[in-house]
Amino acid sequence: xxxxxxxxxxxxxxxxxxxxxxxxxxxxxxxxxxxxxxxxxxxxxxxxxxxxxxxxxxxxxxxxxxxxxxxxxxxxxxxxxxxxxxxxxxxxxxxxxxxxxxxxxxxxxxxxxxxxxxxxxxxxxxxxxxxxxxxxxxxxxxxxxxxxxxxxxxxxxxxxxxxxxxxxxxxxxxxxxxxxxxxxxxxxxxxxxxxxxxxxxxxxxxxxxxxxxxxxxxxxxxxxxxxxxxxxxxxxxxxxxxxxxxxxxxxxxxxxxxxxxxxxxxxxxxxxxxxxxxxxxxxxxxxxxxxxxxxxxxxxxxxxxxxxxxxxxxxxxxxxxxxxxxxxxxxxxxxxxxxxxxxxxxxxxxxxxxxxxxxxxxxxxxxxxxxxxxxxxxxxxxxxxxxxxxxxxxxxxxxxxxxxxxxxxxxxxxxxxxxxxxxxxxxxxxxxxxxxxxxxxxxxxxxxxxxxxxxxxxxxxxxxxxxxxxxxxxxxxxxxxxxxxxxxxxxxxxxxxxxxxxxxxxxxxxxxxxxxxxxxxxxxxxxxxxxxxxxxxxxxxxxxxxxxxxxxxxxxxxxxxxxxxxxxxxxxxxxxxxxxxxxx
Length: 584
Hints:
By secondary structure, the protein is an all-alpha fold. Helix content is about 65%, strand content about 0%. The protein has 25 helices and no strands. The chain has helices at about 30-35, 50, 80-90, 100-115, 120-150, 160-185, 185-205, 210-225, 225-235, 245-250, 255-270, 275-300, 305-310, 315-330, 335-345, 360-365, 370-375, 380-405, 410-415, 425, 430-455, 465-485, 490-515, 525-545, 555-575. Helix 5 runs parallel beside helix 11, helix 5 (about 120-150) packs antiparallel against helix 12 (about 275-300) and helix 21 packs parallel to helix 23 (about 490-515). The chain is globular and about 75 Å long.
């Protein structure tokens, strides 16, 4: 297969995609409305009665203020310059829309009219590589802990600092690449994150000391930590609004990463000497990551995000990317530079090549640390309570989840003995430990799929809140059961399988529920703080696990159980349910 390297200096041009452009007068024939079966010339209603439906509480910004649902369904008569001008300005309450905002909404509409197609589904898989790699390495590092302890003579408690080094890298990577993708572009960050992950991951297989292993895992974490923010942003920015639920389905790749990691660990770590097995294992998942990088960079032609190009004053390239997506999907588009300028009231002959400066990008990305930017989340009691409870849930889960899962191979290796003096009685063999871990990983995969089904179920006990609360409660209970009744390898396996299944449901729903709670004007701030708290508390977990009194085999699990139980209480108290509410 011939490899192409599309990221090196190529600029997109509409001339590369001849045949995809249709006149604005024919746009309605290739629109989202036409695919939805609406009457060709049916006019959209805009009565005052319609505008009062489902009005939020006073003081709460409506999603429509920034993201217009009306543009999903437009009649043929509205596909005119004047019609588009009205549509992109709907929801304006105060101030003026900027030129960038107006043109961004126009790009959203053009992508919506193209719809889901081959390019979007290919990108779904390639962005899934990011979710896959995230858990491939998070669980992979956990699976090496017993071997690192054996080869380098590090105690079982001290070796847990290895996970701290990984989380330090994840914190740096998630912030750096989230910010960097706004400066250097999504396409470069999309490829480089996996490259960094694979380079330092493979390098770690040759480490000569435990300290160097920790350092290389931290460096690897700076790459893998950028996958979720970069891949999620890129996928969302080319995703039609009507298919936005697919962003949630990306989480299905996460447990698959754990499954692959556990299978290779089972094979290599149990069939090679202690100083060789983990190295072969780390080398293998490093090579898998490198292959994913090659597929992304060398085989797939990735378009840069049109939103990023627009923010850099590269409007012609942004339009060309929309044409390219239409071409790859076998569809038509009506978007041109002339239409964008006319709708935004900018004369093409006098257009200034505006761009958002690097300093402004950095300032905007740091704004979620500003109290002034976060304050709208607390402008009414209901939203303020929901915000605090959601952040509380992310923090407690961020601390509780790794206290158990990051050291699960160590817990399983004791076979239910508790690590006391009689531990040799029930200690499991390495083969049994890693076999059980692989079984647990298999059981966890259906949890993400079930979550995608139950979140929209009409039962009063399910939906977002119900599914999230039930799965979290069961997770907490089975953590207690693991310590209290997990006295044999088989009983531990059963309790952990239930735990893995419920935790994947919990995370699947949490990733969908969180952004839906926050209104569009402050959605980035709300989710950004939640993600930040989750990573920081995850960094603290290995430090606690390494310094708790006793042998460290039961206390961290009890702490994890209490934290997850506290998250359950917080979820029950959240005063908002988003099931059935239109996602923007």
